[in-house]
């Protein structure tokens, strides 16, 4: 039975490995992709950078597949938490978690933030987008690399633009929203990034995810 002196396991080893490898390869793919497409590189350099883009893309793909195959329970738990849209989730968007009021002094919506589960409304929406985009970039990447002969010219072109601009738009969201917001809770930040256990303090869980703490950790312990 959990008590308030305990630290709570939020990120299991597979979550941490998946997230870390995904984040590192994501930005490495972004830099190599942008370099080849937008910078006027010499042909030989472009070829070398593209080779690295393909190697990184292979690691990126197998990181996702590995997570799903090795830890299907964790993948399902994260996905299920993102797909649970109850009233509190919808009401989170009435004041965007109170962040506009807290950081920009904009009196947007009610003062109180409704209690949230494992993820708040904004995290659910963005993590669904991120996971969908990780899968979509992997699929379109392989098709653009090896599937070109199977695709019509128009399909290839639209897939290419989706791959380039979709990745850039989501990267802007990651850099401008996901990372700064992640830094607001050092407990969560250290929990997912450190080499040690993926635990967070009781207080952090109670503050950010009281429904998750009460229902999924204390009462049913589906987090184990
Ligand atoms: C250096 C860059 C990054 C930092 C500092 C960072 C930070 C974090 C932190 C602190 C969490 C935990 C939030 C929570 O407790 O709910 C998290 C979760 C998550 N991040 Fe990132 N992140 C980074 C890059 C990325 C990238 C590039 C993606 C994908 C495009 C991504 C996708 C996710 C997803 C899907 C989760 C939820 C996974 C889970 O709860 O196990 N992150 N991130």
Automatic annotation (TrEMBL):
GO terms for cellular component: plasma membrane. It is a multi-pass membrane protein. The keyword Transmembrane helix applies. Keywords: Cell membrane, Membrane, Transmembrane, Transmembrane helix. Its main location: membrane. Signal peptide: none annotated. GO terms for molecular function: electron transfer activity; heme binding. It is found in: Cell membrane. It holds the Pfam family Ni_hydr_CYTB. Residues 11-184 form the Cytochrome b561 bacterial/Ni-hydrogenase domain. The chain crosses the membrane at residues 21-38, 50-71, 127-148, 160-184. This is Cytochrome b561 bacterial/Ni-hydrogenase domain-containing protein. It comes from Sutterella parvirubra YIT 11816.
């Amino acid at each position: 039975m959990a008590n308030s002196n305990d630290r709570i396991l939020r990120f299991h080893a597979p979550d941490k490995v998946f997230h870390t490898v995904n984040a590192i390869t994501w930005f490495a793919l972004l830099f190599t992709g942008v370099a080849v497409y937008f910078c006027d590189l010499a042909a030989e350099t472009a070829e070398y950078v593209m080779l690295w883009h393909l190697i990184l893309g292979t690691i990126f793909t197998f990181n996702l597949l590995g997570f799903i195959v090795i830890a299907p329970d964790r993948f399902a738990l994260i996905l299920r938490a993102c797909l649970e849209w109850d009233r509190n989730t919808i009401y989170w968007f009435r004041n965007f978690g109170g962040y506009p009021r807290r950081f920009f002094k904009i009196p947007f919506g009610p003062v109180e933030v409704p209690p949230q589960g494992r993820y708040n409304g904004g995290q659910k929406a963005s993590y669904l987008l991120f996971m969908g985009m990780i899968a979509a970039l992997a699929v379109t990447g392989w098709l653009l690399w090896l599937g070109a002969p199977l695709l019509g010219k128009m399909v290839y072109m639209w897939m290419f633009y989706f791959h380039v601009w979709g990745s850039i738009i989501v990267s802007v969201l990651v850099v401008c929203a996901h990372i700064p917001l992640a830094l607001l809770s050092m407990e969560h930040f250290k929990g997912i990034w450190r080499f040690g256990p993926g635990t967070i303090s009781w207080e952090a869980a109670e503050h950010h995810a009281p429904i998750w703490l009460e229902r999924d950790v204390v009462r049913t312990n589906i987090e184990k």
